[in-house]
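About this split. The held-out portion is used to measure sequence recovery: a designer receives only the structure tokens and must propose an amino acid at every position. Recovery is the fraction of positions where the proposal matches the reference. Here is one held-out target exactly as it appears in the evaluation file.
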């Protein structure tokens, strides 16, 4: 069976304890690889390696760092097929989506290679002195990531960390560490000094906790659940550590009476169900104007019927299995709760039938009408393929309902009127608003959450700033 080891100080190593775990395919429970499972001591070794590499890497000129990051992007592209296959086998997503994820991770490295060259300072002259303002790398960064986009979400951290001059220790998700590890290995192989890029596997409560609590790490970049983010924030407080948190979402999708309903329905089906709804910016709540509710709902059901579900390794599959039985059980529970509170099931709501689905965590994309805010699907992050629909009379009411949540990651509005789009966009409480578009990710623009969806921003030049400290040097006359 394939073995996946950790990466510490430029070497592939087993954990100190020798412990291993088998990673299984969520589509059929077949073993994919055996992975080394580390603990606190392994995390300490990786942090020490990153600390030793920091002076070398941070003093490497930004032009040279850019060359290495471009070489890393090329190497990721060369190995993209292998990394993507591992990603599908461990996570379940269709191979075409896994390929897109890996190629987009390579693009993030290219983007930050260039962005790192633009880490300019300031020169300020006053009557008594001159001031130079520098932006310097914060130090060793701990990069902790979830299983839903294990490669892309890590690339959003690895790119800016290295471009800024930081070294890092990555902790991929325990149940899907394979593709992320291969991604970092490719980055490392592009010519980084040993110890600049490290990977430690193991449980969040041990390896992750050590990365957060150990004074060697000066910065924590975390993507994951809001509950884990709260824990990290509390524990980073002891050392006033720099933190970026990308947390859960409960994104609303508003369909106005003047929306292009064909486009809105296609966008909604894709964003509610791709990756089986296991995306932080998935459509979680659909608010449709009374006058177009029937037509929009019909179109949404038609679009959803066309989605092909199956093992992600098969060609032409749109939806794979869910990541785990726990995720599927939560989805079942949220659907049952909505139905008990009066929602109507329009599509899905159960596992698909047939031998091909018997051993995987499959679930049909699910559409509910008659939803209201007493239901868990409208209040909690389901992280499953469910689109609950609620009708509204006036846009003010839709915006109020959309904001009635502790989360604030993304929100979507479909309308053909610019005034309506601006009215809603300016009032929705979210870090990103999609107007007539169902993705709010753009490499050059900031991504992150309001309220309990997070703190700080990734992507764009904002993503680089998250790894820099400001220093003022005052020169006397
Ligand atoms: P999770 O919080 O359970 O785990 C994320 C990572 O944190 C894993 O590597 C885990 O091992 C580690 N971890 C767990 N406990 C830890 C601790 N005490 N200290 C340090 N690290 C610890 O999240 P998950 O279930 O893997 O991912 C799903 C969640 O991620 C969803 O809530 C989703 O919305 C969120 N997410 C957010 C974004 C975003 O950009 N806002 C993107 C993707 C996913």
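Reference sequence for scoring:
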């Amino acid at each position: 069976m394939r073995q996946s080891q950790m990466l510490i100080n430029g070497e592939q190593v087993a954990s100190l304890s020798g412990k291993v775990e088998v990673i299984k395919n969520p589509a059929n429970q077949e073993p994919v690889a055996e992975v080394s499972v580390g603990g606190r001591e392994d995390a300490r070794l990786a942090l020490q390696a990153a600390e030793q590499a920091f002076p070398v890497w941070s003093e490497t000129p930004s032009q040279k760092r850019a060359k290495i990051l471009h070489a890393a992007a090329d190497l990721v592209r060369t190995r993209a097929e292998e990394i993507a296959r591992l990603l599908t086998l461990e996570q379940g997503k269709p191979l075409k989506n896994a390929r897109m994820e890996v190629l987009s991770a390579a693009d993030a490295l290219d983007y930050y290679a260039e962005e790192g060259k633009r880490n300019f300072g300031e020169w300020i002259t006053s009557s008594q002195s001159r001031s130079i303002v520098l932006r310097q790398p914060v130090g060793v960064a701990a990069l902790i990531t979830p299983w839903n986009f294990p490669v892309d979400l890590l690339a959003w951290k690895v790119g800016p960390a290295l471009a800024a001059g930081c070294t890092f220790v990555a902790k991929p998700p325990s149940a899907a560490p394979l593709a992320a590890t291969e991604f970092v290995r490719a980055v490392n192989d592009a010519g980084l000094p040993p110890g600049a890029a490290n990977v430690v596997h193991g449980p969040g409560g041990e390896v992750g906790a050590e990365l957060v609590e150990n004074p060697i790490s000066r910065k924590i970049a975390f993507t994951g659940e809001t509950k884990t983010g709260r824990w990290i924030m509390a524990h980073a407080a002891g050392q006033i550590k720099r933190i970026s948190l990308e947390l859960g979402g409960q994104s609303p999708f508003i369909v106005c009476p003047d929306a292009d309903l064909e486009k809105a329905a296609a966008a909604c089906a894709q964003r509610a169900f791709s990756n089986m709804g296991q995306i932080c910016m998935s459509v979680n709540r659909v608010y449709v104007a009374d006058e177009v509710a029937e037509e929009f709902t019909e179109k949404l059901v038609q679009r959803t019927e066309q989605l092909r579900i199956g093992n992600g390794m098969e060609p032409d599959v749109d939806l794979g299995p869910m990541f785990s039985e726990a995720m599927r059980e939560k989805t079942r529970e949220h659907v049952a709760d909505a139905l008990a509170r009066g929602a109507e099931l329009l599509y899905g709501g159960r596992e698909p039938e047939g031998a091909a689905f018997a051993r995987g965590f499959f679930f049909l994309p699910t559409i509910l009408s008659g939803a209201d805010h007493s239901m868990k699907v409208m209040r909690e992050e389901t992280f499953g393929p469910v689109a609950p629909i609620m009708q509204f009379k006036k846009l003010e009411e839709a915006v109020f309902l959309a904001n009635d949540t502790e989360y604030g990651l993304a929100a979507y509005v479909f309308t053909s009127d610019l005034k309506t789009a601006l009215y809603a966009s300016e009032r929705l409480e979210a870090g990103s608003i999609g107007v007539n578009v169902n993705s709010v990710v753009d490499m050059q623009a900031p991504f992150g959450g309001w309220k309990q969806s997070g703190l700080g921003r990734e992507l764009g030049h904002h993503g680089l700033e998250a790894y820099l400290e400001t220093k003022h040097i005052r020169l006397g006359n």
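Annotator remark: The chain is about 40% helix and 25% strand.
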